[in-house]
Protein 1
Amino acid sequence: MAKTRPSKSDLDSYIIKGTNNIVRAGDCVLMRAPETDKPPYVARAEKIEADNRSNLKVRVRWYYRPEESHGGRRQFHGAKELFLSDHFDVQSADTIEGKCVVHTFKNYTKLENVKPEDYYCRFEYKAATGAFVPDRVAVYCKCEMPYNPDELMVQCDGCKDWFHPACVGMGIEQAKQLDLYLCSDCASIDEKKPEIKLTESPVMNGKLEPKMATKRQKK
Ligand SMILES: [Zn+2]
Ligand SMILES: [Zn+2]
């Protein structure tokens, strides 16, 4: 008797157990880690399918946290940073705990408040080699580090570079209150500029007239 291959059927969506949250292909999900002390794994659901015994399976593409990468977590990695890996898996849909949102880096930096389910991704990660795509990223400040969105930076109004307050000898509170900032390089250029002050005529705005009038009244 010929064996028939177990038939699988693709599903449009999956409702997370005990919730009203619907997961569809393309959504990002949090999946229970086997170790209870670990934060949930983050993945992108690529496909949801039921096997011939009606077990719901989800084909996922894993996001790696910086600490799970070969190089480990580095100073410029944000708390909500994830790398989209080339590591695919099939998991039981039961392990899905909830949904999350993995933003582009640009969109993440524009969020007014970051909710627990908000993450961002600016690198793809090759799990086998530990390589990142892109392999280069813009650096800022005197310390020449990529931007960590968790850290406050101030922008120089001269060169438009960004600086960590601590790297330029400034306190966080002081940095928050700045209206305008010039880095030391730009400030020294500014000093060397010849000063050409276009002084306003003293009679402008009619300010001089009342002053003179009061003087006249005094004596
Ligand atoms: Zn710095
Ligand atoms: Zn500057």
Protein 2
Amino acid sequence: METDTLVAGTPVPSAVPSTTDALAPIWHPSPNFGPRRDGLKPSLIVLHYTAMNSAQEALDRLCDPVHEVSAHYLIGNDGTLWQLLLEEDRAWHAGAGEWHGQSDINSRSIGIELDNTGKHPFSERQMQRLEKLLDKIMHRWTIQPNGVIGHSDMAPGRKFDPGPRFDWLRLERNALAAPRGCGDCQQYVSQARFRTLAQAAGFSADIDDETLLSAVRLRYRPWGAGPLQQADFAPLTTQA
Ligand SMILES: [Zn+2]
């Protein structure tokens, strides 16, 4: 069968209907995957950075059976797009954690790794490629903007990617991530109130107050420091 003869380095037919599509990913298969559990289909897209020095290093790791990690896609710093798994399959990228009270994020998501050490900005070519890829995946699986999250959102305190350098606002403006609230900042600064709002936004993991604040700031205002303050509430608050 044609679909069974995926050769490394060639475009993936199931993901790319047109052979003239310039955005065709390079097929670089990983052995690290399994079936999605309980008949789940992707409803989330989880963004990561590789924390490695090169895309090649990341490719090697994500395809090494010893490490038992993978993702569906890897986008190089120069914008090159590799596909490691079919979207139908369950990649091993998210690990322990939850979002909106739901666990087994691997069965519910598509994982995208961004070639970045975590210490420098993401390149324009990489961001453009990511935006086009997100748009396609979101259409293919009917995933809403609020289904696009960071690894640190679902594994707060354990994971910190895609990190403080990632431009979430850019995705939000392009309807590729949930728009942050811009509600009334005149909130009574209460830890319980903050937790309620954060949980409603998806941060449901059982974590302490400090870890929760760090995770929410990482997503919305990574420059934020010090104790909980009114500005931390705004992104979680919808306009009245
Ligand atoms: Zn990650």
